[in-house]
Every structure is written in C-alpha cells, then in structure tokens.
Specification:
Layout (H helix, E strand, L loop, with lengths): L1 H23 L6 H4 E10 L2 E8 L6 E7 L5 H14 L8 E7 L3 E6 L21 H20 L2 E2 L8 E3 L7 E3 L6 E2 L3 E3 L10 H4 L6 E3 L3 H16 L1 E2 L9 H10 L13 H10 L37 E2 L36
Helix pairs in contact: 1-3, 4-6
The chain binds adenosine-5'-triphosphate and magnesium ion.
Amino acid sequence: MEESDEEGEDNEEFLERLMAQTGREMPQRELEEHYAVLEELGSGTYGRVVLTEPLDGGPPVVLKLMLKERTEWRAFLREYCIALCLSSHAACLRALPVAFESTTHFAFGQELAPAGDLCEMVPPCLQEGLAEELVKRCASQLAEALDFMHSRALVHRDVKLDNVLLFDRECRRVKLGDFGLTRMQGSAVGAMSGTLPYSPPELCLLQGSDTLELDSSLDAWAFAILLFCLCTGCFPWAMAASSDPQFKDFSAWQAGRGVPASWPGFSSGALEMLRRLLTLDPDRRSPAIEVQKYLSLPWVMAPSAGELVPSSSQSPLTSRTGESPGGTGGRDVAGGGDGVPVPPANTLAPCW
Ligand SMILES: Nc1ncnc2c1ncn2[C@@H]1O[C@H](COP(=O)(O)OP(=O)(O)OP(=O)(O)O)[C@@H](O)[C@H]1O
Ligand SMILES: [Mg+2]
C-alpha cells in the first residue's frame, strides 16, 4: 500500500512536470490554416473529434478539439499528457505529438480507430450482445489496458462502450481511449462523477459534497458492467443503489441468495467472474486483470434453446452515454432461464 502511494506521488510529480513543459511549448495555430477537416468522428458538449488532413502533406490525423469556453487549460493538458504517457501500451489509444491552441479550441492529435467505438457494435435497438469470442477479445485487451493504467496509479474513471475504440469489426484490436476523467489513485472525487449505470455503489451512495478516495476498484466495477453489456446488449441495472430493483436482486445474490432472475444464461464461470468484479465492498473487489483467468472457460451456458438475451426487467442501452431510464423496455427471454446458449454470431449493424 505504502509502496503504491509513493509510486502515486512519483507519477503525479512526473505528470505535473510533463504538463508544465507541454504547456510552455504549446503552439498557437488556427485549425483551418493547417488542416482540412475530412469527417466528424464524434461530438459532445466538450467539442468535437475530427479526422483531418494536414495541408502541408502527411498522413491523416484525428484531432480532439475541445472548446476553450468549456475546457480548463489544465484539464486539456492533463488529458493530453496522460494520453501521451499511456501511448506505449498496445491497448491504449495512442496520442500523437501534435497539440495546439487556436482562438476557440485546444486540440491534440490521436491515431485513427477506423472501426469506430464499441457503442456502435451493441445497438440499443437490438438489445443483443456480441458473440462470446468477440466479447472475450475485448475483455482480454481492455483488462491489459486497465492493468497498465492501474500499475501506474492511474484510474480511468470512464470505462464504457463509447470509450473503447475499434480497429476492426471483429474486435481483434481494440483500445481504451478518452482519458478526460483519468486521475491519480487517491484523488478525491465527488458524487455523479461518471456515467450512472457504470458507477459502483460506493460512488452512487455519495451525497452532496461527499467525496470518495479514488481507487482502481472503480474501474473494475465499470469494466464488469461493460462486459455484461457486451454479452447481453443491456445494462444489469440503471443505478447501483438499493432503490433499484435489479440492483437489489443482485445484492441479494452477493449475500448468498440465488442468481438474479433477470440475469440471462451466463455459465458458472462467467457468473463467478462477474460476482468477483462486482463485489460490493471495493476493498474486496477483484482487479480487472483477473478476467484473464476466465478466458478459457465458456461464458454462456451450452446451447440448447434461444439466445443470451436480456429479460424485460433489465435496463436497455438507450444512448451512447449510457444514461438509462431503467426498468422496462428489454425483450422477453427467449427459451427460458436454463441452458441459455451462445449469442448470435453477428449483431453488428449500427441502427442510429
Ligand atoms: N481516435 C479516434 N478514432 C475514431 N473515433 C474516435 C477517436 N477518438 C474519438 N472518437 C469518437 O469520438 C467519440 C468521442 O470521443 P471522446 O470519448 O474522446 O470524447 P469525450 O470527451 O468522451 O466526449 P463526450 O463528452 O461525448 O463523452 C468517441 O466515443 C468515438 O466515437
Ligand atoms: Mg468519451
């Protein structure tokens, strides 16, 4: 523990130095004078992510453009520098040594993920998961990315479908991106500082000005929710609080009662993996990397009837951010509770 705190401090000092130096060297340039925008890849309140072509030649560059009026200088520098530090890992989205500020935006360059993000692979209208093989490919690579971050005392804090970038539609190469919320382990974070259905109970419990000491166990929880979504196309619950009936069923299972009736046909191995990653006590929760131990086991029960589909009581994936109204909207279970088999091999068509 002490060792990890010390390492945390070293990493923090290093990050501060890198941010200071990067900030001093940041050039001023106007986007349209240096780049032709080819395509918008994403947008939000923060700004836009665009594919561009440098006007002076060279390969296309993805630029994350953050509106100055909505982004603090330090927040931009932190995100860029963390992305640079993590770029050496194969499963972390690579930042390029290109960053500038314009009159209206801060910008930094990234490699292009040509197949989009995981959200597009699990369209909310289908409410079906991915084939087990694809889920496991994602699981394995993302576990490595998280382990790398956690070994450097960094907590991602925003593990979700939208933030996993794809290099092919078979998920052979996927990367964790968007380090905008990433902070050092041990930092204090407040209530509502993530995406609700991915938030662990210790975060959902926070009230008003309460804070929580940031720990990698927060990412392990969100990672398990992401795996559940990939397997089923649904969130297990809208919010990890006792007021949510699905979460209440799940908590009862954690306390020794039966598997939640609304959970579709996961194998016993997958159930054990999810139970360990979703341990209510963050101090006893398994680390994300433990997923590797379960990759050789089946994750869904042997095929007999129907598909691995959510029950009607699960929370559908209703938007990219994962904000879910909770409760209704899912499909009825086809084939009943027992022996629910492998999900269909291909449910990849985007539908919005
Ligand atoms: N390098 C990339 N290659 C391809 N698509 C990308 C890339 N970076 C981002 N995108 C797309 O843009 C979206 C938004 O990017 P990012 O997650 O970095 O921004 P954000 O800060 O999360 O925005 P939001 O406020 O929507 O959460 C991603 O979900 C993805 O679809
Ligand atoms: Mg994002």
